[in-house]
Write a structure and sequence with these properties.
The complex is a heterodimer of chains A (368) and B (175). By secondary structure, chain A is of the alpha/beta class. Chain A has helices at 7-18, 32-43, 57-68, 80-85, 87-95, 120-123, 138-153, 209-241, 266-279, 319-328, 346-354, and strands at residues 2-6, 22-25, 50-53, 74-78, 101-106, 131-134, 161-166, 174-178, 248-251, 258-263, 284-289, 291-293, 304-309, 333-336, 361-363. The longest helix of chain A has 33 residues, at 209-241. Chain B has one domain: Pyruvate-ferredoxin Oxidoreductase, domain 3 (3-Layer(aba) Sandwich), CATH 3.40.920. Classes of the chains: A alpha/beta (368), B alpha/beta (175).
């Protein structure tokens, strides 16, 4: 069915199709519409799930962990301060190898109090062991949530997946959405290490140095396996639903001399900038990073790189720029823009490319 | 591409109007994006929404600075804000006003949406709701077809008063 939807409602619509056994969530701007809509589905009987309206985000993730470890499919959604508040449990979910799916609506961190888009919230969860994807359209938000469950629950992965969408810029905008029958796309969840009263196991026990590092190494082995699982899942999705995705979303990159590298909705805005620059004779391309964990292999060749970070790691630099430098072993023009919902237009992005200074960092709206 | 900036006050239905415009355009077979600009939301405060309509998928997420159309659901906003900022000469302005207002250099259309809402009983918590009447007015200037306007309204509202108010606005607006 073809309709229109906000980004938030697209996430809820996907959850309705995926039919998790348990949803535990706490509302926070700009995520609220997701949990409200799921609650509506449960109330009107169109989604048969146990909905737990918990008293905090820490409890939301704790409830998801408790449900998931019994082998139940679970979902939650949060944003910004909510994600930070649940951070202890976010780490636990990955360590316990639980295929929980969470939508995070990217929002800046206070103070100053700010509810608008920024990626610093989810990028603080970069090292937790969660897979992370950043989406750029209402349809992609829907599709990513559907695929996230299949990827997380694959026994080669057994890790949680965080689907990130830009606060307001995507969560609250209305675009077309194709909603289809997904029956059979996600196999029934089978968690090999589930607990049950009939088969008791202990979890979270004291683990000495001789074993702990094996558990952590197993997480990394599964992260590396997840590349193949993501590719297989996106291929199966494309075969069935005719919408294909990849680790990156590349636009006019093939013959480009300079690449604009972004996360989230800025990547679509960058495509318009690329068209403008091409008309001026500048061979630009847009490379939007979709999967940040596992971090994808990038085909940047010898092209100049302009990296836009809607986030920052104080004392180091843009977090995406840092990842790009580490992966490509090459320097870039690092632009810090869009923080706290700061408006960045395609004209601004075209300006970043025209005025690029490889090796330097530029704070949009602050630096001269 | 049509780039529409819609001015309203919190509680008048401006955000829903933006979604209806997107839906009606979408039912016309076009791509559309509706993006309300969220500040500190409160009843009565000026609110701006942006709507883009095009034959191709829309990749721009930033605000509209050079609209092709400006819609003002509450003309008292014109006392406190320049609703015409960025509108090119000859651009289209649709005003909710009981009396015709002429704005030099623009194609200006006036229609009494508030009167229509009150007359048809489209009132929620004491506020006349303007989102469905304005859809009728916009169909009149050809932003989308009448059939798509009807389809959009019936997809989002069950109360027949919404269709009646849109039809009244379609008939009353002079073009």
């Amino acid at each position: 069915m073809l309709t229109i939807s906000t980004g938030n409602n697209a996430v809820a619509a996907a959850v309705r199709r995926v039919k998790p056994a348990v949803v535990a969530a706490y509302p926070i701007t700009p995520q609220t519409e997701i949990v409200e809509q799921i609650a509506n589905y449960v109330a009107d009987g169109s989604l048969d799930t146990r909905y737990i309206p918990v008293e905090s985000e820490h409890s939301a993730m704790a409830a998801c962990i408790g449900a998931s470890i019994t082998g139940s499919r679970t979902f939650t959604a949060t944003s910004s301060h909510g994600l930070l508040y649940m951070n202890e449990m976010v780490n636990w979910a990955a360590g316990a190898r639980l295929p929980i799916v969470m939508a995070n609506v990217n929002r800046a961190l206070g103070p100053g109090w700010n509810v608008w888009a920024e990626h610093t919230d989810s990028l603080q969860a970069r090292d937790t062991g969660w897979l992370q994807i950043y989406v750029s359209t209402v349809q992609e938000a829907y599709d990513a949530v559907v695929m996230a469950f299949r990827i997380a629950e694959d026994r080669r992965v057994y890790l949680p997946v965080m689907v990130n969408l830009d606060g307001f810029t995507l969560s609250h905008i209305t675009q077309q959405l194709y909603v289809s029958d997904i029956d059979g796309f996600i196999p029934p969840m089978e968690l090999d290490h589930r607990i049950s009263p009939d088969d008791p196991h202990g979890y979270g026990c004291m683990t000495g140095p001789q074993d702990y590092f094996r558990i952590r190494y197993d997480i990394e082995r599964s992260m590396r396996e997840s590349y193949a699982v993501i590719q297989e899942t996106e291929k199966a999705f494309a075969d069935r639903f005719s919408r294909s995705y990849g680790f990156t979303d590349e636009y006019r990159c093939e013959d480009a001399d300079v690449l604009v590298i972004t996360l989230g909705t800025l990547g679509k805005e960058a495509e318009v900038a690329v068209d403008m620059l091409r008309d001026e004779g500048i061979a630009a391309g847009s490379m939007r990073i979709r999967w940040f964990r596992p971090f994808p292999p990038l085909d940047t060749r010898d092209r100049e790189l302009v990296v836009i970070d809607r986030d920052y790691s104080f004392g180091c630099g843009g977090i995406l720029a840092d990842a790009i430098r580490a992966q490509t072993k090459r320097d870039c023009f690092s632009v810090i823009a869009g923080i706290g919902g700061q408006e960045v237009t395609y004209r601004d992005i075209a300006g970043f490319v025209r005025d690029r200074r490889i090796g330097e960092e530029y704070w949009f709206g602050v630096d001269a | 591409m049509h780039e529409i900036r819609l001015h309203s006050r919190g509680g008048q239905g401006g955000v829903t109007a933006a979604k209806l415009i997107a839906l009606a355009s979408f039912r016309d077979g076009k791509y559309a994006t509706a993006a309300p600009f969220y500040g500190a939301e409160r009843r009565g405060a000026p609110v701006v929404s942006f709507i883009r309509i095009d034959e191709n998928p829309i990749r721009i997420y930033s605000q509209i600075h050079n609209p092709t159309h400006v819609i003002v659901l509450d003309i008292t906003i014109m006392d406190v804000a320049d609703v015409l900022v960025g509108l090119a000469p000859g651009g289209i302005v649709v005003l909710n006003s009981p009396k015709p207002i002429a704005l030099d250099g623009y194609k200006t259309y006036s229609v009494d949406l508030t009167g229509i809402a009150l007359r048809t009983g489209l009132v929620v918590a004491g506020s006349p709701i303007l989102n469905t009447p304005v859809i009728g007015a916009l169909a009149k200037i050809g932003l989308f077809s009448v059939d798509s306007a009807k389809a959009a309204i019936s997809e989002m509202f069950v109360d027949i008063k919404n269709q009646e108010a849109a039809l009244a606005a379609y008939e009353e607006m002079v073009v």
